[in-house]
Structures are given as structure tokens and as C-alpha cells.
Amino acid sequence: MASNKKSANIGARLDRLPNSGWHIKMWLITAFALLVCWSNAIGGSVQNVLLNELHWLEPGTTLLAMWGTTYTAGQLFGALVGGPIGDKIGRKKSIMLYEIIHIIAMIGGAISPNVYVLYVFRLVQGFGLGALLVVLFAGFTEYVPGRNRGTWSSRNSFIGNWSHPVSNGIAFLIGLTGVGLNANWRIQYMIPSILSIIAVALIAKKFPESPRWLESQGRVDEADAILTKIEKEIEASTGKPLPPVTEEPKPVKQLPYSALFRGKLLRRTIVGSLVLIGMNTIQYTLMTWMPSLLVSLGYDTSQSQFMTMFGLFGAPFGIFIASLYMDKIPRRVTGVILLILMAVLGVITSQQTAMTPLIVSTFLLNTVIYMYVCYASAVYVPEMWPTSAKLSGSGFCNAIGRVSNIFFPFLVTYVAASSMGSAGVFVLISIVAVVIAVSVAVFGVETRGESVEDIGNVD
């Protein structure tokens, strides 16, 4: 219910809060939810079993190309629809809704009797995760202060992106147990389903609604009550009074969805979409195709899973590095540097065939890719929107970023099957990185260190 009170100065009160146990709690709950929703992270290992062992999928076929496309299509619509719904019903309710959809789809995938039923659940998995990631990453920026928002969001991404090496490590260990291959990939779906149920319970009990979102909806009394409780919790944990609020209340506006396509927000919509096109085409191509590409170089399934798992440890390492500098370097400069590094390492990786140099180059490439993933998906794009349009803006950019992945797997399939083989796929990654780097250099906007309310000033 809307309040007659116009403002409770929510933004200034949140931004002046010292780092505390409450911030750590919010970070850990969000990060755990991100860590265990890994239906995307197991895409490569499940595809590897279905393609090279069970032959539910066959090389060079449209059905194989649709493995990535189906999931991406679900993510596209999840981001596109999930963002506006999240701006309408709130952060907490939308997180729980999308978690439940994703859990049901993972369990359905685990019990699928054939590849066609699996594809249906894979589409729904993509929808649930696409919406969930928008709310978790963008919504989280409303709970932390602008002065170190990039660091907190990077830490969030650091924990969440352990899902790739952890899930591939679990797939490797499942293979060592001698369990049948038909059960192998099903178990890979059941484990994150169970862990995600735990995440839902934590969110229901410990995760408050965003005071910033409540204020943007005119529900100022509710926002004030929640923030007052948070302030008392922080004072009790630190044993010190909170610093005074020195800033005057700033206007919080209700913006329609159409605002994303005009004025200052249009530039942010363009930049955010380009940044995520680069992230998705590079990251998901590598994650989905790496095991199969290694098999094409002569490594067996067990070796390819081991090499993929080792290379993927570059993901948390890269995000850890990103968390150390994220609030120290301008956002646009960061994006351009990382994209250029990806382009160079992609070419280097394409020239490797022996196991050791291939593992090393893949590790380095993954390190830089995940520095960019942290920058793009956890920090830059989620933070560039006003509160009332935060999930809509982030969701739209995520959706556009995934459009390329609907068509890109067909190009990757063609290149991998051509005379260029697996080396051509890495060159393709490099070309994409260069194109996006030029775009960010030209159109990039700066958000580092600004408050959510200042970012929301689009007059």
C-alpha cells in the first residue's frame, strides 16, 4: 500500500551504512543462490555424454546445434519477461518465483525419457535461470552502497561462478564412481535441484524486500520500517552508532518500460546490450563446446572432462582478481582492456594441441573471460539503471545479449565441422571480442562510484 510520506531518504541511509555482518549475510545468501543454480554450467558435460556416449545427439546435426539455442531462447524470454515482472512484484517475490520454476525444470530434465522431452525442460530451465540471474545480480545492487558496489557485486559473482568448476568436478567424480552413463547426466541435474531448494528456504527466511524498490513504488512506510530494522541490526552488531545522514532526499521516479528506448537510457540500453552480446557469445560458446572440442582433438571423454574442469578454475581466479580492482578503474576502460586480452588469448589457444599448453592457455583464457563476465553481468550492466526500471533495463539487455546465442551455435557448429575445426572456434571468439571492444570504447558510459539515486537521474 502506498504511503502519504513522499520519502524516507532510503538511498542516502543505505549508502552511509558501514560494511557489516548484514551486508555479508545478504552477499552470502545471494551468492549461494547463484552458486547452486547451475543448469547452465552442466550444459557442456551433459552434452558430452549425450553426444559422445549415449548418442542421443549426433555430430553436425540441427538437433545438436539446438542444444545451446534452446537453452538460450529460454534465457532470452526469461530475462525479457522476468525483468518487468520483478520491477512489478518486488525483488524477494520474484527471486523465489524464478527459483521454483528453475527447480521444477531441472527435476523434469533429470527424469526425461528421451532427448525431445529433455529439450522442453531445457527451454524452461533457460527461462527460469534467465529471469533469476537478472533479479539476483541487478537486485543485489540496491542493497549495497555506491562507494564499493563494484567490489560487493564482484564478490557475489566470485562465489556464484564457482558453479562451473564445481559442477564439472562433480561430473568428473560421478564418472569415476562407475555409475552408468544414463544415470550420470541425470544425477548432474538432481544435485543442483536439491541445493536450490535450500537456497529458497534461506531467501524466504533471511532476505528482506529491497527498501529502495519499496520507496520507488510509493510504499515509503514499509521501506522505512525495513531499513530501520536493518540499521538497528547493524548498530547492534558493530556496537557503534551509525554515521549521520548528510545528503538530502533525492527524487525517485516511476519510469515506464518505454523509457529504456529514449533519452539517456537509450544509450545505456545500447551499451548494455553490446556488452552482454560479447559476454554471452564468448562465455557460452566456450562452456558448451569445450568438452566436445577436446574430443575432436583426440582426447577421450574422461580426459576432456578433466581438462575442462582444470581450465574452468580460471573462472573464480579471474573474478577474484576483478574484485580487487573493480572500484579502482573506470568501467569503460576495464571493458575494453578485457575484450582485447580475450581476443589475443583466443588466437593463442587456437594454436595449441598438446595437453599441457592447451590446459594453460585455456586456464588463462577462462581467467580473462570471467573477469569480463564479472564486469558485464554482475557489475556494469546491473548498476546502470534507475530503481523503478532496474530489472526491466537489465533484463532487456540480457535478452538482447542472448539473441546472438540463438544463432551463434549454428555458426560454431559450421566452423567446428569445417576444415578450420576447433581452432576456428577460438578465432571466432577473438573476432567477436574485438568488435565489442570497439563498441564499448565508443559508446560506453561511466557508473563507477555513483549512488543508485544519482544513476537514476536521467533528466
TrEMBL record:
Q: Which domain of life is it from?
A: Bacteria
Q: Which SUPFAM superfamilies match?
A: MFS general substrate transporter
| Membrane spanning stretches | 62-83, 95-113, 119-141, 162-181, 187-204, 265-286, 306-326, 333-352, 358-381, 393-417, 423-445
Location in the cell: Cell membrane
Which keywords does this Swiss-Prot/TrEMBL entry list? Answer: Membrane, Transmembrane, Transmembrane helix, Transport
Show the GO MF annotations: transmembrane transporter activity
The terms describing its cellular component in GO are: plasma membrane
Q: Where is the Major facilitator superfamily (MFS) profile domain?
A: 25-448
Pfam families according to UniProt:
Sugar_tr
Give the membrane topology.
Answer: Multi-pass membrane protein
Alphabetical list of PANTHER family matching this protein: SYNAPTIC VESICLE GLYCOPROTEIN 2
Q: What name is this protein filed under?
A: MFS transporter
Origin organism is: Mediterraneibacter catenae
